Amino acid sequence: MIKRCVIGVSVAAILSILPAAAEPLRMKFGVLRQQHSSETLSILDLPAEDDTLAGALIGVADDNTTGRFTGQSYEAIDEKLAPGDDAVAAAQKLLDQGAVAILADLPADDLLHVADTLKSRETLLFNVSATDERLREADCRANVIHVAPTRSMLTDGLAQYLVWKQWRRWLIIKGSHPQDELLAAAYRASAKKFGAKIVDERVYVDTEGGRRSDSGSVQTQRLIPPLTQGANYDVLIAADESEVFGNYLPYRTFDPRPVVGSAGLVPTSWDASHEQWGAVQLQNRFRAQFHRGMNARDHQAWIAARMIGEAVTRASSADPKTLAAYLTGPDFNIAAFKGVRLSLRPWNLQLRQPILLGDGRMIVSVSPQDGFLHQTSELDTLGVDKPETKCRLK
Amino acid sequence: MKMTTLPNSLRARLLLPLAGEGGPTKRGRMRALEASPNVAHSHAFSLEWERARAFRSAAIAALLLASPAHAFTAYVSNEKGNSVTVIDTDKMEAIKTVKVGRRPRGIEISKDNSEVYICAGDDDTIQVLDTKTLKITGNLPSGPDPELMILSPDGKTVYVSNENDNLVTMIDTKTKRRIGDVPVGVEPEGMAVSPDGRILVNTSETTNMAHLIDTQTKQIIANVLVDARPRFAAFKPDASELWVSSEIGGTVAIIDPQSHKVTQKIRFEIPGLSKEAIQPIGIAFTNDGKRAFVALGPANRVAVIDTATKKIEKYLLVGQRVWHLAFTPDEKYLLTANGVSNDISIVEAASLKVLKSIPVGAFPWGIAVATK
């Protein structure tokens, strides 16, 4: 029954294409994605097989619906890397298949290699997962558009809320990996920027154990109180990008205090529980097709696919140079179910965006918070702003 | 309007839809009949009964009068309240809250003022509310997640945008049957129909287009690209222009319905507010087409626009996150549904003064005004 309806609709859809242009404009882009770690503390966070790709495919479907009316068609080519695979070779393979843009879900170093290799070929790269500040600062590239927020945008988004709540005394527990230190540094910068005080910083050392065990909670319950005692703080910030301990903290602290950051109240660009501003439409479309919730990487890939669609539609071209000019120009903005228009920071090609604060079940708040003002856009109260940037695009 | 002197012939005429009405004239989340209150009842009653009732109520009204000649009722859909607040616009107060389906948004009044149609998005249906009994009497078969709708000028067809399946559905209001579907862009929302009933307009939020549809052939005749997230469309009363508001783009596009081209874009600037906060949504024209009112969402303001020059005359401060607008049929007041402050603002159209706010249910969204 359902199938018959769908067929009926698509036939009708084809019949209604009348006003479209005769010669369809074809647009292919690649989805170059890494295998994300399945070492997650919660089994609910295990990455799906189609992680990131699913978001791109919903974006392609949305672009193609528009394309029906404008005579354009879109296609995504998937290229999933196994650990150890060469990202540059995979990117070149995508170009050989006709991709004029690549959505990159890659670690920072791989992304830079791909960007530098493809520089001469004028391919647009969309960073849909790496939050590293340096990609937008000292290591920024003119052919990389950053859809994913930076660490500082995420920590500023959370910090504004904590300050609004008057929870100004922070205890930080950070992991022992280099990226955890980067995240802790971002929290330090946020504290300074918005007037919070870090009362202590502690390290949770990764002993390289597995995440699964049949009696894990017993030990964890005894381990966390000593780690969190002896500090006078309002809120505990977990800086744990490697999923080593963050989710062990809530409800187990020595003092009854809320946990935020990598667990508890988490700053993110998207969450499967977000439904405001029409987001429920996108969540419904996504769940109907992929039978799971849409995560932040999926949504960032969706935005990138929509940015490509918008640029092709508005510029009436599939030429990467023309598309780049439109996307980085003053007229570009995009709707992404986050309440306000998103646009690019021209100095480093970072997408301006609100940051959602959620506990995985509900969105608790959305930053920027009221009262954090900015002369050009309140969204620029999140992350490194123009006067501080080290980026010189080239 | 003096009801006692209303000739029967005129009354009979008023039972029928008026030419041109239902187009943009009373545009907001609604159009309402320019009819005397005593003709607002169901066709189901016999004409004799109607006459007797009309004379009786007219006589009562004459006794009570000559004070407020018009009695209007506003219906406000409360998106999160799953209810419709009924407001007496003379007393300027809520008189009843009616429980309806889940996530009510789009709201329209039937041409004879006997029924209110309510899009209950999460129940995938349009509910029919009887204006006399304030009871739900039935449903219209929309597609999944109906959001906004518009009645044809003759009142015979309701056109609905279904957010979840990229379709515009056409429903016969009498038989309550689906009579057609038109595939449109992603997340169809805004709906408008030309005063002659020939052109139906739908805006699709993620495709960023206004789709112009021939109501006879049910085919799309033009797709006009506008700014991001177009949410509402309205024809100027003389049909010379089609206005489309883009919530995220922050503009109102003026489209020439003949050439299907965007001829102009209205932008808004409010000192102290960032451009992201200005999000145009609902549009209402005065009957004479000289003025347009545009709700600006989280900017908490309604822009007053001179339609000849397209200049913004004034910004009216109303409640928070203002969604949709509706005039009382006498055009004395403009009512605004303010989503976040859970109230409606009443604007006096002549003085452009915000007179009062009336608390309603949770997250008011749509608004429609009927003669009682």
UniProtKB/TrEMBL annotation, chain A:
CDD domains xref list: PBP1_ABC_transporter_LIVBP-like
Domain Leucine-binding protein: 54-204
Keyword Transcription: no
Protein known as: Branched-chain amino acid ABC transporter substrate-binding protein
Family of the protein in this entry: Belongs to the leucine-binding protein family.
Signal peptide: none
Keywords: Amino-acid transport, Signal, Transport
BP-aspect Gene Ontology terms: amino acid transport
Top-rank taxon: Bacteria
UniProt cross-references to NCBIfam families, sorted A to Z: PQQ_ABC_bind
Organism: Methylosinus sporium
